[in-house]
Amino acid sequence: MQEDFHYYATYCAGLIAGYSHEECLVIAFSDNFADCCTKTFLTGIKGPVVAATTQSAMEMSNAPTDFIGRQQITSIWSAFHFLPGDLYSKVKGAKPYRDKYHLICKPNSDLSVKTAKLAKGKSLEAIGLAMHVVSDTWAHQNFAGTPSLVINNMSDYIYEVFPDGREEKLVFWKNPGKPEDVDKGNYINSIFSPSENSIFNLGHGRAGHIPDYSFIKYRYMPAWGKYEEVFKDNPSDYMSAFTQLVYALKYYRGDYTDFQKDTYETEAVKKYESEIRGIFEKRQLFSNEDWKKFAKDHFGTDLPDFDMKKYDGEYEKAEGDAKKDTVLGRFFTAAIAQKTMVVHEIFASGNKLAGYSAIPKKVNRKGIIVDQESIREEEENKIFVSDSEVRK
Q: What is the Cα–Cα distance from 117 to 120, expressed in whole angstroms?
Protein backbone atom coordinates (compact mmCIF):
# COMPACT_ATOMS: atom_id res chain seq x y z
CA MET A 1 0.00 0.00 0.00
CA GLN A 2 0.98 3.62 -0.47
CA GLU A 3 0.34 6.83 1.41
CA ASP A 4 -3.10 7.22 -0.18
CA PHE A 5 -4.26 4.33 2.00
CA HIS A 6 -1.80 4.48 4.90
CA TYR A 7 -2.35 8.17 5.58
CA TYR A 8 -5.47 9.46 3.83
CA ALA A 9 -7.71 6.38 4.03
CA THR A 10 -6.58 5.58 7.57
CA TYR A 11 -7.45 9.13 8.64
CA CYS A 12 -10.98 8.62 7.26
CA ALA A 13 -11.24 5.20 8.92
CA GLY A 14 -10.41 6.91 12.21
CA LEU A 15 -13.18 9.45 11.74
CA ILE A 16 -15.71 6.71 11.03
CA ALA A 17 -14.52 4.85 14.14
CA GLY A 18 -15.21 7.91 16.28
CA TYR A 19 -11.80 9.51 16.79
CA SER A 20 -11.33 13.27 16.72
CA HIS A 21 -9.63 15.11 13.87
CA GLU A 22 -6.51 15.61 15.99
CA GLU A 23 -6.36 11.96 17.05
CA CYS A 24 -6.84 10.80 13.48
CA LEU A 25 -3.94 12.96 12.31
CA VAL A 26 -1.56 11.24 14.74
CA ILE A 27 -2.85 7.75 13.91
CA ALA A 28 -2.63 8.40 10.16
CA PHE A 29 0.82 10.00 10.42
CA SER A 30 2.16 7.02 12.37
CA ASP A 31 0.58 4.57 9.93
CA ASN A 32 2.29 6.15 6.93
CA PHE A 33 5.51 7.00 8.78
CA ALA A 34 6.25 3.27 8.88
CA ASP A 35 7.18 3.67 5.20
CA CYS A 36 9.58 6.53 6.03
CA CYS A 37 11.45 5.56 9.20
CA THR A 38 14.80 4.37 7.85
CA LYS A 39 18.11 3.98 9.65
CA THR A 40 19.37 6.93 7.61
CA PHE A 41 16.54 9.10 8.94
CA LEU A 42 17.06 7.89 12.50
CA THR A 43 20.78 8.61 12.34
CA GLY A 44 20.02 12.11 11.13
CA ILE A 45 17.84 12.95 14.13
CA LYS A 46 19.96 10.88 16.54
CA GLY A 47 17.18 8.40 17.15
CA PRO A 48 17.49 4.67 17.98
CA VAL A 49 18.43 2.92 14.72
CA VAL A 50 16.85 -0.31 16.00
CA ALA A 51 13.47 1.42 15.55
CA ALA A 52 13.82 1.46 11.74
CA THR A 53 10.62 0.25 10.12
CA THR A 54 11.74 0.35 6.49
CA GLN A 55 14.83 0.67 4.29
CA SER A 56 15.53 3.26 1.63
CA ALA A 57 16.51 2.24 -1.89
CA MET A 58 20.09 3.29 -1.12
CA GLU A 59 20.16 1.28 2.10
CA MET A 60 18.88 -1.80 0.31
CA SER A 61 21.35 -1.44 -2.55
CA ASN A 62 24.19 -1.36 -0.01
CA ALA A 63 22.79 -4.04 2.29
CA PRO A 64 24.84 -7.25 2.55
CA THR A 65 22.86 -10.40 1.81
CA ASP A 66 24.94 -12.81 3.81
CA PHE A 67 23.11 -14.60 6.64
CA ILE A 68 23.44 -11.75 9.15
CA GLY A 69 22.55 -9.16 6.51
CA ARG A 70 19.43 -11.11 5.54
CA GLN A 71 18.41 -11.29 9.19
CA GLN A 72 18.51 -7.50 9.42
CA ILE A 73 16.51 -7.14 6.20
CA THR A 74 13.94 -9.75 7.20
CA SER A 75 13.49 -8.40 10.73
CA ILE A 76 12.29 -5.11 9.24
CA TRP A 77 10.24 -6.23 6.25
CA SER A 78 8.53 -9.17 7.96
CA ALA A 79 7.70 -7.19 11.09
CA PHE A 80 6.18 -4.14 9.40
CA HIS A 81 5.23 -4.88 5.79
CA PHE A 82 4.98 -8.62 5.13
CA LEU A 83 3.67 -10.10 8.36
CA PRO A 84 3.99 -13.91 8.13
CA GLY A 85 0.66 -15.65 7.61
CA ASP A 86 1.39 -19.04 9.15
CA LEU A 87 4.72 -19.91 10.75
CA TYR A 88 3.67 -23.51 11.30
CA SER A 89 1.97 -24.45 8.02
CA LYS A 90 2.82 -27.84 6.57
CA VAL A 91 4.86 -27.59 3.38
CA LYS A 92 7.15 -30.04 1.64
CA GLY A 93 10.78 -29.24 1.00
CA ALA A 94 14.10 -28.79 2.76
CA LYS A 95 14.16 -26.63 5.90
CA PRO A 96 15.74 -23.59 4.18
CA TYR A 97 12.80 -23.56 1.77
CA ARG A 98 10.21 -24.19 4.49
CA ASP A 99 11.60 -21.32 6.58
CA LYS A 100 11.19 -18.91 3.69
CA TYR A 101 7.77 -20.28 2.75
CA HIS A 102 6.56 -19.74 6.31
CA LEU A 103 7.27 -16.01 5.96
CA ILE A 104 4.72 -15.55 3.16
CA CYS A 105 2.32 -12.79 4.15
CA LYS A 106 -1.42 -13.45 4.59
CA PRO A 107 -4.24 -11.45 6.20
CA ASN A 108 -6.13 -12.69 9.26
CA SER A 109 -3.16 -14.51 10.72
CA ASP A 110 -2.35 -15.19 14.36
CA LEU A 111 0.43 -12.60 14.09
CA SER A 112 -2.06 -10.06 12.76
CA VAL A 113 -4.14 -10.54 15.90
CA LYS A 114 -1.04 -10.26 18.11
CA THR A 115 -0.02 -7.09 16.28
CA ALA A 116 -3.40 -5.50 16.88
CA LYS A 117 -3.51 -6.53 20.52
CA LEU A 118 0.05 -5.36 21.18
CA ALA A 119 -1.11 -1.77 20.57
CA LYS A 120 -4.12 -2.03 22.91
CA GLY A 121 -3.85 0.48 25.75
CA LYS A 122 -0.79 2.05 24.16
CA SER A 123 -0.30 5.38 22.39
CA LEU A 124 -2.03 6.68 19.27
CA GLU A 125 1.33 6.23 17.56
CA ALA A 126 1.33 2.53 18.46
CA ILE A 127 -2.19 2.23 17.08
CA GLY A 128 -1.17 3.88 13.82
CA LEU A 129 1.82 1.57 13.43
CA ALA A 130 -0.35 -1.49 14.07
CA MET A 131 -2.80 -0.28 11.43
CA HIS A 132 0.03 -0.09 8.90
CA VAL A 133 1.07 -3.68 9.58
CA VAL A 134 -2.48 -5.06 9.51
CA SER A 135 -3.51 -3.24 6.32
CA ASP A 136 -0.33 -4.30 4.51
CA THR A 137 -1.27 -7.94 5.04
CA TRP A 138 -4.06 -7.39 2.51
CA ALA A 139 -2.00 -5.68 -0.18
CA HIS A 140 1.18 -7.71 0.28
CA GLN A 141 -0.31 -11.16 0.68
CA ASN A 142 1.44 -13.98 -1.22
CA PHE A 143 4.87 -12.31 -0.91
CA ALA A 144 7.49 -12.67 1.83
CA GLY A 145 9.60 -10.02 3.58
CA THR A 146 12.85 -11.84 2.96
CA PRO A 147 15.03 -11.99 -0.18
CA SER A 148 14.11 -15.21 -2.01
CA LEU A 149 13.90 -16.15 -5.67
CA VAL A 150 12.04 -19.40 -4.99
CA ILE A 151 9.35 -17.54 -3.05
CA ASN A 152 8.99 -14.02 -4.48
CA ASN A 153 9.79 -14.50 -8.14
CA MET A 154 6.96 -14.72 -10.65
CA SER A 155 6.55 -15.45 -14.33
CA ASP A 156 6.46 -12.66 -16.92
CA TYR A 157 2.82 -13.42 -17.59
CA ILE A 158 0.75 -11.06 -15.47
CA TYR A 159 -2.60 -9.91 -16.80
CA GLU A 160 -4.96 -7.18 -15.66
CA VAL A 161 -8.56 -8.40 -15.52
CA PHE A 162 -11.15 -5.72 -16.33
CA PRO A 163 -14.77 -5.64 -15.06
CA ASP A 164 -16.07 -6.60 -18.52
CA GLY A 165 -13.90 -9.73 -18.54
CA ARG A 166 -11.32 -8.31 -20.92
CA GLU A 167 -7.66 -9.02 -20.08
CA GLU A 168 -4.46 -7.22 -21.00
CA LYS A 169 -0.87 -8.29 -20.37
CA LEU A 170 1.06 -5.83 -18.20
CA VAL A 171 4.42 -4.57 -19.44
CA PHE A 172 7.24 -3.86 -16.98
CA TRP A 173 10.25 -1.65 -17.62
CA LYS A 174 13.36 -1.10 -15.56
CA ASN A 175 13.71 2.70 -15.71
CA PRO A 176 12.60 4.06 -12.29
CA GLY A 177 12.67 7.59 -13.70
CA LYS A 178 10.02 6.79 -16.27
CA PRO A 179 6.45 7.34 -15.04
CA GLU A 180 4.05 4.43 -14.87
CA ASP A 181 1.12 4.55 -17.29
CA VAL A 182 -2.17 3.07 -16.06
CA ASP A 183 -3.91 3.48 -19.42
CA LYS A 184 -1.19 1.59 -21.32
CA GLY A 185 -0.59 -1.00 -18.59
CA ASN A 186 3.08 -0.05 -18.28
CA TYR A 187 4.68 -0.41 -14.85
CA ILE A 188 8.07 -0.68 -13.13
CA ASN A 189 9.39 -3.74 -11.30
CA SER A 190 12.70 -4.98 -9.96
CA ILE A 191 15.37 -6.47 -12.19
CA PHE A 192 15.35 -10.25 -12.48
CA SER A 193 18.21 -11.84 -10.58
CA PRO A 194 18.93 -15.57 -10.63
CA SER A 195 20.53 -15.25 -7.20
CA GLU A 196 18.30 -16.79 -4.54
CA ASN A 197 19.09 -14.13 -1.93
CA SER A 198 19.31 -11.05 -4.16
CA ILE A 199 17.70 -7.90 -2.77
CA PHE A 200 15.80 -7.72 -6.09
CA ASN A 201 13.86 -10.76 -4.89
CA LEU A 202 12.56 -9.07 -1.74
CA GLY A 203 8.82 -8.78 -1.17
CA HIS A 204 6.74 -7.83 -4.19
CA GLY A 205 9.62 -6.22 -6.07
CA ARG A 206 9.16 -8.59 -9.01
CA ALA A 207 5.51 -7.44 -9.25
CA GLY A 208 6.45 -3.77 -8.91
CA HIS A 209 3.78 -1.58 -7.31
CA ILE A 210 0.90 -3.64 -8.68
CA PRO A 211 -0.04 -4.96 -5.19
CA ASP A 212 -0.07 -1.34 -3.94
CA TYR A 213 -2.73 -0.10 -6.38
CA SER A 214 -6.27 -0.48 -5.09
CA PHE A 215 -8.00 -0.42 -8.49
CA ILE A 216 -6.41 -3.41 -10.17
CA LYS A 217 -7.53 -7.01 -10.51
CA TYR A 218 -4.91 -9.31 -11.95
CA ARG A 219 -3.77 -12.89 -12.39
CA TYR A 220 -0.18 -13.99 -12.10
CA MET A 221 2.02 -17.03 -11.44
CA PRO A 222 4.16 -16.92 -8.25
CA ALA A 223 7.26 -19.05 -7.77
CA TRP A 224 6.15 -20.33 -4.36
CA GLY A 225 3.03 -21.79 -6.00
CA LYS A 226 5.05 -23.69 -8.62
CA TYR A 227 4.02 -21.03 -11.13
CA GLU A 228 0.36 -21.96 -10.97
CA GLU A 229 -2.05 -19.09 -11.55
CA VAL A 230 -3.29 -16.91 -8.69
CA PHE A 231 -6.06 -14.30 -9.03
CA LYS A 232 -5.84 -11.12 -6.95
CA ASP A 233 -8.81 -8.75 -6.50
CA ASN A 234 -7.32 -5.59 -5.04
CA PRO A 235 -10.57 -3.53 -4.80
CA SER A 236 -12.22 -6.22 -2.67
CA ASP A 237 -9.11 -6.77 -0.57
CA TYR A 238 -8.69 -3.05 0.06
CA MET A 239 -12.32 -2.82 1.14
CA SER A 240 -11.72 -5.68 3.56
CA ALA A 241 -8.61 -3.92 4.84
CA PHE A 242 -10.53 -0.68 5.38
CA THR A 243 -13.42 -2.29 7.28
CA GLN A 244 -10.95 -4.30 9.35
CA LEU A 245 -9.14 -1.06 10.28
CA VAL A 246 -12.40 0.54 11.40
CA TYR A 247 -13.11 -2.56 13.48
CA ALA A 248 -9.63 -2.42 15.02
CA LEU A 249 -9.93 1.29 15.77
CA LYS A 250 -13.26 0.72 17.48
CA TYR A 251 -11.60 -2.06 19.48
CA TYR A 252 -8.97 0.41 20.69
CA ARG A 253 -11.72 2.85 21.70
CA GLY A 254 -13.41 0.16 23.78
CA ASP A 255 -16.39 -0.49 21.50
CA TYR A 256 -15.27 -4.13 21.31
CA THR A 257 -13.71 -6.11 24.13
CA ASP A 258 -11.58 -8.29 21.87
CA PHE A 259 -9.90 -8.22 18.46
CA GLN A 260 -10.60 -11.32 16.42
CA LYS A 261 -9.45 -12.41 12.98
CA ASP A 262 -11.79 -12.31 9.99
CA THR A 263 -13.99 -9.67 11.63
CA TYR A 264 -14.96 -6.37 9.98
CA GLU A 265 -16.88 -3.21 10.89
CA THR A 266 -19.36 -3.28 8.00
CA GLU A 267 -22.22 -1.58 9.83
CA ALA A 268 -20.43 1.71 10.53
CA VAL A 269 -19.04 1.76 6.99
CA LYS A 270 -22.32 0.82 5.31
CA LYS A 271 -23.52 4.37 4.62
CA TYR A 272 -20.20 5.20 2.91
CA GLU A 273 -19.63 1.84 1.22
CA SER A 274 -20.53 2.81 -2.33
CA GLU A 275 -18.36 5.92 -2.27
CA ILE A 276 -15.40 4.11 -0.70
CA ARG A 277 -15.60 1.29 -3.22
CA GLY A 278 -15.66 3.92 -5.94
CA ILE A 279 -12.41 5.40 -4.63
CA PHE A 280 -10.75 1.98 -4.53
CA GLU A 281 -11.93 1.09 -8.04
CA LYS A 282 -10.95 4.38 -9.68
CA ARG A 283 -8.08 3.86 -12.14
CA GLN A 284 -5.43 6.12 -10.67
CA LEU A 285 -2.05 5.72 -9.01
CA PHE A 286 -2.92 7.88 -5.98
CA SER A 287 -6.31 8.63 -4.42
CA ASN A 288 -5.17 11.31 -1.95
CA GLU A 289 -7.53 14.00 -3.19
CA ASP A 290 -10.55 11.70 -3.18
CA TRP A 291 -9.98 10.85 0.48
CA LYS A 292 -9.52 14.52 1.39
CA LYS A 293 -12.84 15.26 -0.30
CA PHE A 294 -14.46 12.35 1.53
CA ALA A 295 -13.34 13.73 4.91
CA LYS A 296 -14.51 17.22 4.06
CA ASP A 297 -17.89 16.15 2.67
CA HIS A 298 -18.85 13.79 5.49
CA PHE A 299 -17.04 15.14 8.55
CA GLY A 300 -16.24 18.75 7.67
CA THR A 301 -12.53 18.32 8.38
CA ASP A 302 -9.58 19.55 6.35
CA LEU A 303 -6.92 16.88 6.00
CA PRO A 304 -3.45 18.36 5.40
CA ASP A 305 -1.09 16.48 3.12
CA PHE A 306 1.34 14.08 4.74
CA ASP A 307 4.49 15.77 6.03
CA MET A 308 7.24 13.35 6.99
CA LYS A 309 9.15 16.04 8.90
CA LYS A 310 6.16 17.31 10.85
CA TYR A 311 7.43 16.13 14.24
CA ASP A 312 11.20 16.20 13.71
CA GLY A 313 11.66 19.48 15.59
CA GLU A 314 9.70 18.33 18.61
CA TYR A 315 11.90 15.25 18.95
CA GLU A 316 15.21 17.01 18.33
CA LYS A 317 14.49 19.79 20.85
CA ALA A 318 13.47 17.37 23.60
CA GLU A 319 16.22 16.30 25.99
CA GLY A 320 16.90 13.00 27.72
CA ASP A 321 13.88 10.96 28.71
CA ALA A 322 11.58 13.70 27.40
CA LYS A 323 12.24 12.40 23.90
CA LYS A 324 10.13 9.33 24.71
CA ASP A 325 7.11 11.59 25.28
CA THR A 326 7.16 13.04 21.75
CA VAL A 327 5.24 11.76 18.73
CA LEU A 328 8.38 10.25 17.23
CA GLY A 329 9.53 8.91 20.59
CA ARG A 330 6.25 7.08 21.10
CA PHE A 331 6.43 5.77 17.52
CA PHE A 332 9.95 4.44 18.13
CA THR A 333 8.82 2.69 21.31
CA ALA A 334 5.96 1.05 19.40
CA ALA A 335 8.27 0.04 16.55
CA ILE A 336 10.74 -1.65 18.89
CA ALA A 337 7.90 -3.53 20.61
CA GLN A 338 6.42 -4.71 17.30
CA LYS A 339 9.77 -5.78 15.89
CA THR A 340 10.65 -7.57 19.11
CA MET A 341 7.37 -9.48 19.12
CA VAL A 342 7.53 -10.57 15.47
CA VAL A 343 11.19 -11.57 15.52
CA HIS A 344 10.57 -13.61 18.63
CA GLU A 345 7.56 -15.38 17.11
CA ILE A 346 9.58 -16.24 14.00
CA PHE A 347 12.51 -17.46 16.09
CA ALA A 348 10.19 -19.41 18.39
CA SER A 349 8.92 -21.37 15.39
CA GLY A 350 12.45 -22.64 14.79
CA ASN A 351 13.13 -20.13 12.02
CA LYS A 352 16.24 -17.93 12.34
CA LEU A 353 15.77 -15.87 9.17
CA ALA A 354 14.72 -12.75 11.11
CA GLY A 355 17.34 -13.02 13.86
CA TYR A 356 17.66 -14.41 17.36
CA SER A 357 15.17 -13.45 20.03
CA ALA A 358 16.53 -11.93 23.23
CA ILE A 359 13.27 -12.36 25.11
CA PRO A 360 13.25 -14.71 28.12
CA LYS A 361 11.74 -17.98 26.94
CA LYS A 362 9.61 -20.81 28.23
CA VAL A 363 8.71 -23.97 26.39
CA ASN A 364 5.41 -25.63 25.49
CA ARG A 365 4.52 -28.38 23.05
CA LYS A 366 4.85 -26.09 20.05
CA GLY A 367 8.25 -24.76 21.03
CA ILE A 368 9.45 -21.55 22.60
CA ILE A 369 6.79 -19.00 23.51
CA VAL A 370 6.59 -15.79 25.51
CA ASP A 371 3.79 -14.05 27.34
CA GLN A 372 2.76 -10.42 26.88
CA GLU A 373 4.29 -9.41 30.22
CA SER A 374 7.70 -10.50 28.97
CA ILE A 375 7.20 -8.39 25.85
CA ARG A 376 6.43 -5.37 27.99
CA GLU A 377 9.53 -6.00 30.09
CA GLU A 378 11.56 -6.36 26.91
CA GLU A 379 10.37 -2.99 25.65
CA GLU A 380 10.96 -1.23 28.93
CA ASN A 381 14.46 -2.65 29.35
CA LYS A 382 15.34 -1.92 25.72
CA ILE A 383 16.63 -5.41 25.08
CA PHE A 384 16.68 -5.46 21.33
CA VAL A 385 15.65 -8.11 18.87
CA SER A 386 18.75 -9.49 17.20
CA ASP A 387 22.34 -10.24 18.01
CA SER A 388 23.18 -8.62 14.68
CA GLU A 389 22.11 -5.21 16.00
CA VAL A 390 24.31 -3.90 18.78
CA ARG A 391 22.91 -1.18 20.99
CA LYS A 392 25.10 1.50 22.47
A: 5
